Amino acid sequence: MAIFNKVLARMGIGSARVDTKLYKDQLIAGEKIEGVIEVYGGNIEQEIDSIYLNLYTSYVREVNDSKVKENYLLNSFKIADPFVIQSQEKKEIPFSFDLPADTPVTMGRTRVWIATGLDIKNAVDPSDVDHMEVLPHPILHATINAMSDMGFRLRQVECEEAPRRLRGRLPFLQEFEFVPTRGAFHGKLDELELMFYFLAPGKFDVLMEVDRRSRGISGFLAEALELDETLVRFTVTDEDIPQLKSLLESVVARYS
Fold first, then answer.
1. How many whole angstroms separate alpha carbon 140 and alpha carbon 30?
2. 0.85 cut: is pTM over it?
């Protein structure tokens, strides 16, 4: 019977299993993730080589004129050294680590999740997946509110592959796409995109792409050649939040 159980465990039947529980599943990038990993023994004693937590998101990239979604490993954490889990035993292993400051916000189509895995010798490695909500940093939150006050509607949020000249640590940028529906810029712009680069706590570079609405033949030609788009880069800090609306209005007005 023992040999039969070992064979089943190698196939993943009656093997150890894992369940990760986060103390908080709503966090701002840069905050500490805390939780506990529960490991449940199966039908036989098993050696666990390691426990790892992988933090993932996904982004869209173009392949042969088609858009393909790619999962991306933001960070990986080894939680435990090798140990033995007895049959039917339960172990609880606490953990904590910092959510990377450049983790994208879970708005629109963006998802962020933690995949927990056990590395077990001569057996199928069990895993567990937990999605989490990443809230906007106060600067991002204030920017979205300011854009709304200026008459822009947030139409889409998506992580897309970035050109090499615009890449930071990650191969993608999270784009916040706005369209003017009222106010001073309604009728002047087709859309406006914002992207954020983390520089330091309370400090971001903002990349703004302003897409002006074409007017007449010259405007049509400019749009066809993509000359109606302007890329602007500027820095925003926590101290700028109270006057963020006027700051954004001046930048948009200058290039619209």
1. 14
2. no
Is 56:35 a contact under the CB 8 Å cutoff? Answer: no
Percent of the chain at pLDDT above 90? 64
Structure tokens at 136: 């906007």
- Report the distance separating Cα 79 and Cα 237, nearest Å: 34
The pLDDT of residue 9 is above 70: no
Strand-strand pairing, 90-98 and 112-120: unpaired
User: What is the rounded CA–CA span in Å between residue 60 and residue 16?
Assistant: 35
Q: Which single residue is written with the structure tokens 């007449």?
A: 216
What is the spatial distance between Cα 221 and Cα 230, in angstroms, rounded to a whole number?
15
Distance CA 216, CA 214 (A): 7
Q: How far apart are CA 201 and CA 196, in angstroms?
A: 13
CA distance 162 to 165: 8
Chain mean position to CA 99: 10
Of residues 77 and 217, the one with the higher pLDDT is 77
Q: Where are the alpha helices (DSSP H) in 122-228?
A: 138-149, 216-224
Cα separations in angstroms, 185 against 165, 182, 195, 209, 256: 29, 7, 20, 14, 8
Strands (E), 162-202: 172-180, 189-200
